Amino acid sequence: MYEAVASLLSFNAGIYYATGESPKRRGNAHATIVPYETFESERWLDQPRRRNDELWKRFCSAVERPELTNDPRFVKAADRVRNRDVLVPIVKDIIKQRSRR
After folding, report:
1. DSSP 26-92
2. Are 41 and 100 in contact, with CB atoms under 8 Å apart?
3. Is the dihedral of CA 25, 46, 30, 7 positive or negative?
4. What is the pLDDT of residues 61-94, one digit of tens each?
5. Cα separation of 40 and 96, whole Å?
6. For a tag site, which of 73, 91, 96, 99 has the least CB within 10 Å?
7. What is the mean pLDDT of residues 14-18?
8. Is the pLDDT of residue 48 over 60?
9. Which residue in 87, 73, 72, 75 sits closest to 34, CA to CA?
């Protein structure tokens, strides 16, 4: 019961108790949601709005990259986390090419 309650303290505690690994420093990135961090445009933007699969699809549509929604590496939230190293540079490039507006 202690472990179940302790895992609710934060996602970092949950990661530690589930894997035995200490959380890594990630700056503005989130350990379990991708993409969820700041991206550079003409200014820095905080982009935490793509937390679930539906919001990811809406983002891809808004930036005119619908092919990303069907890419097997990014279809589900867990896929995006596993493929963070591939996805984050793609999103950085998309955001950098556009204005904040």
Report:
1. -TT--SSSSS-SEEESSSEEE-----SHHHHHHHHHHTT-THHHH-TTTSSHHHHHHTHHHHHHHHH
2. yes
3. positive
4. 988 999 999 999 999 989 998 998 999 899 888 8
5. 6
6. 99
7. 78
8. no
9. 87
